């Protein structure tokens, strides 16, 4: 008889940090770069949640949903990230950030740029140069972690303090 409360591994690969110890330095540097407060942490978590949804990754979706809950975000806002375009819960600045992450991670329509000049200008209306650089790095940051999440398939966790690799 098996123990119904035993943790079942769904990680495909061992913790990559065990083989590439520099991973923790890279991760810390990315979090430091995006932690300069030029973009609200909530906005970055919304962007990271949307990226996880776009690529269909449970780990990133659960993790960023948890971050938003811990930050006091409403269930309506968290749930509506998947359909943010017509949801009344987001500021214009958040909408611009969500549009940027979608443009980055979804294919462009044939013959169109992923991030058009119009989309960039819209985002730049809400974010100064430092914030635009930070938001761009935050989108790149989640791109970095998407590769680890979809290839390695770590266990879904609600906190970075939780063990996600066996």
Structure described in brief:
57% of the residues lie in helices and 0% in strands.
Structural summary, described in words:
The protein is mainly alpha-helical. The protein has helices at about 20-35, 40-55, 60-70, 75-80, 90-105, 115-125, 130-150. α2 runs parallel beside α5 (about 90-105), α2 runs parallel beside α7 and α5 (about 90-105) packs antiparallel against α6. The radius of gyration is 17 Å and the shape is globular. Residues about 1-5 have low confidence and may be disordered.
Main β-sheet description? none
Structural class assignment = mainly alpha
State which percent range the strand residues make up: under 5%
Instruction: Specify Rg, calculated over alpha carbons.
Output: 17 Å
Helix and strand element order:
HHHHHHH
- For the secondary structure, the number of strands is 0
Number of helices: 7
Query: Which runs of at least 5 residues are low in confidence (pLDDT < 50)?
Result: 1-6
| Oligomeric category | single chain
Mean pLDDT across all amino acids: 91
- Terminus-to-terminus distance: 22 Å
Residues in helices, as a percent range:
55-70%
Q: What spatial form do the alpha-carbon principal axes imply? A: globular
């Amino acid at each position: 008889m098996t123990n119904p409360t035993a943790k079942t591994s769904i990680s495909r690969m061992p913790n990559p940090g065990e083989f590439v110890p520099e991973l923790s330095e890279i991760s810390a540097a990315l979090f430091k770069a995006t932690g300069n407060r030029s973009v609200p942490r909530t906005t970055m978590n919304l962007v990271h949640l949307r990226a996880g949804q776009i690529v269909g990754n449970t780990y990133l979706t659960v993790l960023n949903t948890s971050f938003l809950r811990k930050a006091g975000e409403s269930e309506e806002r968290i749930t509506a990230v998947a359909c943010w375009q017509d949801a009344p819960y987001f500021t214009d600045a958040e909408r611009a950030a969500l549009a940027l992450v979608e443009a980055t991670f979804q294919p462009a329509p044939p013959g169109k740029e992923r991030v058009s000049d119009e989309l960039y200008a819209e985002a730049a209306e809400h974010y100064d140069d430092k914030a635009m650089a930070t938001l761009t790095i935050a989108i790149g940051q989640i791109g970095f972690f998407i590769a680890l999440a979809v290839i390695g398939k770590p266990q879904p966790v609600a906190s970075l303090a939780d063990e996600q690799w066996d």
